Amino acid sequence: MKTVLKLAGMLLGLAAYIGLAVLGRGGFTAFFSDLALTALAAVTLALTAVAALAGGSLSPGVREDRGNRWVLPVFFVVGLFSAYLPACADREGFWVIDGASVRWVGVVLFAVGGALRLWPVLSWAIGSVGW
Fold it and tell me: Are 69 and 63 in contact (CB under 8 A)?
């Protein structure tokens, strides 16, 4: 049951994050008409799928300091803005650098960064299974 809830949470978060970017860009057609943004959404989906298969735990194994929970609403607000504002700024032409070529560099950097972030988790998960 925990796996189903974890997967549902991941898919809900993914849909919300991409949905906010689509909204900021000006709609479904405006977002997915740009091939680089479509590739970015596909890479995000792939990284989410790999993260779901990697397992792992959110628990560090130590007791939590409840005084640090003030950061959760802050992270939530920053996450909302980081999903919506870049797409909105791109739509309005605000802080845009060169357009398509820089978008593709961003897609590659995002994919490489996501792979580097998941690599240690996957190597641990594969090693614990004995592959």
Answer: no
